[in-house]
């Protein structure tokens, strides 16, 4: 019963996210009439008003556009405007594309370039995970690790958040392994390294753009979060702190064979491998940079006019929030954060108007998810074939959760 309620809650959150996106979108092409626009009845607008475009092409010389006025301005009435007045200076009529127009006008060469960039992610993610596995004496080989990385990517589209595939990945990494705790914690630290690097990317880029007030504020928050994570990690791995907060006492009460104790021991194994953890974070930086560049290309393909620097600060934060298991693929959550950070920013190209619209932001994040889905679908091939665990040759081994004394001495 509890599992059914949990599934219903996840479904409700996913539907709520989709509803939020659908409500945010502008489905039809619209024009924004500025203050002072003369209406058919001779009155003038006291405030800017959005009206639906029903005919004509904005900006075309010698043409006129026809718009549908809302009921409060004249039920059923239309008005005609000079098409050349649309999209000019800030005092002119502004054009906002609907969903169909936004996608139809996309520069698909940039979209394809984004797909190719994201293609580097599985290889870099595999290298990161192998680094952590090998630091604990586990080496399944590049082929098996790469295969399970793609499987995890596939299952990311079957569970809440953008990291649900880690559960499946951890299961098959531990299955048949003689050291299940170490295998599972390699997946956990793999995810931690990824999250640390995506925040670090935003912080590093932000340091180059401190003259921008918005970026400066975000950069400060990012580095404060990084500081908090470092302090937490130092405390967790500190013997004195662990005694002070009672972690060691709790372990003694639970016993050596408890699940929590074995997981904790596997995590502590990385205390003697700081180089592997740091290396995993460093390997993640180019992976996340490629993903953010691909998403930025998707935004530019849809007409977003924001600088690469601003996008490389904001997008990592958007993806970081999306990785939390709140809604399916972060639907609604990622969009809400992106709206809060990107809407209202001026265009980087110096043109009048905002640098991004709601439709463009939604389309950019949608394409970003589709990029990942392309490679996630490759993982479905291995799901259908079966035999996904890393260590089939070790199924008869005892479940020894900690490295042997000989292994530790060899290190």
Task: Please provide a brief summary of the model.
The chain crosses the membrane at residues 105-124, 188-209, 215-237, 300-321, 328-349, 361-384. InterPro entries: L-PG_synthase/AglD. With 411 residues, the protein is mostly helical.
What is the total domain count? 2
Strand count, sense and barrel status of the largest sheet are: 5 strands, antiparallel
Query: Which regions have little confidence, pLDDT < 50, spanning 5+ residues?
Result: 393-411
Mean pLDDT across all amino acids: 77
Helix content: 55-70%
Give the overall silhouette.
elongated
Q: What separation lies between the terminal Cα atoms?
A: 48 Å
Q: How many extended strands?
A: 5
- The number of helical segments is 16
% residues in beta strands = 5-15%
Order of helices and strands: HEEEEEHHHHHHHHHHHHHHH
Structural class: mainly alpha
Strand sequence of the main sheet, in spatial order? 4-3-2-1-5
Rg calculated over all Cα atoms: 26 Å
Describe, in plain words, how this protein is organized in 3D.
This protein has 411 residues and is mainly alpha-helical. It folds into 2 domains: 37-71 and 78-105, no CATH class; 109-410, no CATH class. Helices cover 59% and strands 6% of the residues. The chain has 16 helices and 5 strands. It has a 5-stranded antiparallel sheet, with no helix packed on it. A hairpin with an 8-residue loop joins strand 2 and strand 3. It is elongated. Mean pLDDT is 77; it is low at 393-411. Keywords: Cell membrane, Membrane, Transmembrane, Transmembrane helix. The chain crosses the membrane at residues 105-124, 188-209, 215-237, 300-321, 328-349, 361-384. Its main location: membrane.
